[in-house]
Amino acid sequence: MNAKIGGDAPASDGALALQVRHLVKRYGDSLVLDDFDLNVRQGEIFGLLGPNGSGKTTSINCILSLLTYDSGDIKVFGHEMTPTAYVLKSRIGLVPQEVAVFDELSVQENIDYFCSLYVAQKDRRKSLVDEAIALVGLEDFRKYRPGKLSGGLKRRLNIACGIAHKPDMILFDEPTAAVDPQSRNAILEGIQRLNQAGATVIYTSHYMEEVEQICDRVLIMDHGRHVAEGTVDELKAMVSSGELITVETLDLDGDAMAALRGLPTVASTDYDGKTLTVRCKSGARNLVDVLDMLERSGANIGHVSSNPPTLNDVFLEMTGKALRD
User: Fold this and answer.
1) Same domain, 296 and 247
2) Cα(first)–Cα(last) distance of the chain, in Å?
3) Rounded to two decimals, what is the model's pTM?
4) What is the mean pLDDT of residues 192-202?
5) Torsion over CA of 4, 10, 11 and 14, rounded to 10 degrees?
6) What is the average per-residue pLDDT within 95-116?
7) Domain for residue 303, yes or no?
8) 273 and 139 within one domain
9) Could you say which EC number(s) this protein's record lists (predicted)?
10) Distance set, CA 19 to CA 14, 35, 36, 77, 234 (Å)
């Protein structure tokens, strides 16, 4: 499947924070990026999803000009990205998946060091460091060294180091991996505040609920190729999966189950003697049809719920894999 909805580039490159066209990258005989395209509009939070080995990390390293590639074009804010495009690189922030800070420096010293790579003026840097510390909620930990911080606080420090110089575009690679719920919420809220302040965000995650929560548009890639792109709702509309219906009932018989399986939009059913679960294909009347069939069978119906397809359902149908495969 290769589908694009809502992913066409605006007429002018000036409206794009990032444009990747026909990117090809090989490692020996292995084709890692296969004519890969990506357009990220200025001011949006853009989700980049793919199973392990899909080419996400390679594409990010090519975008940052940390890797050479065989062919294709990469433009950042309308300008060609090259290894020596230092002014352009100063407009980019990277928050890597692995925490990359200096253990011998304090929280404040770490952030100041990374900020100094882009901002020479001490007075200006002090203000930026203070803002970064406040953004990630580390005010009470300024003098702590990383070894004294919890995993979640280290992640927040990692983010502060990547964004202190106020980049126009920020790449977040799994920023909430293995953190506690409180830190996860703080990180997601911080990312949204950065975006509201004007930063364009590219976000990779294995947590589908995070992507649904914060991303304006999402691209799914697999085997180095652009598989599908759009808003979460647009992606859900591309697949055959419909809602998941659950019904509490104690008296379903074999005839009723057979009748349910015979409905044209029912994909699968499961009944454990207490709860009926019906997975439907895409359709406008799924819930009505299921309830009508149950009433005709004489079943007593208790609590009923209907949940629309999730982004994980979309991902599984389009790639044939779970996100962590």
Assistant:
1) yes
2) 18
3) 0.82
4) 96
5) -140
6) 96
7) yes
8) no
9) 3.6.3.31
10) 10, 13, 11, 8, 21
Query: Average model confidence (pLDDT) for the chain?
Result: 90
pLDDT in tens, 10-33: 434 449 999 999 999 999 999 999
Show the CA angle centred on residue 6, arms to residues 223 and 40, nearest 5°. 65
Higher pLDDT, 100 or 12: 100
- Residue 76: in which H helix or E strand, if any? strand 71-76
pLDDT the model gives residue 322? 58
* Residue 222 near residue 51 (C-beta atoms within 8 A): yes
Last residue of a domain, one of 236, 265, 283: 236
Residues 128 and 262 in one domain: no
Count how many domains the chain has: 2
Looking at the fold, whether 260 and 272 belong to one and the same domain comes out as yes
User: In this structure, are 153 and 108 located in the same domain?
Assistant: yes
Same domain for 277 and 180?
no
Distance CA 168, CA 164 (A): 11
- Helix boundaries (H) for the chain: 56-63, 86-89, 107-116, 122-136, 151-163, 181-196, 208-214, 232-238, 254-261, 286-297, 311-319
Say what the pLDDT of residue 318 is.
85
Question: How much is the average pLDDT of 126-153?
Answer: 95
**φ and ψ at 72, to 5 degrees?**
120, 175
- Does 90 fall in a domain? yes
Domain CATH number, residue 265: 3.30.70.100
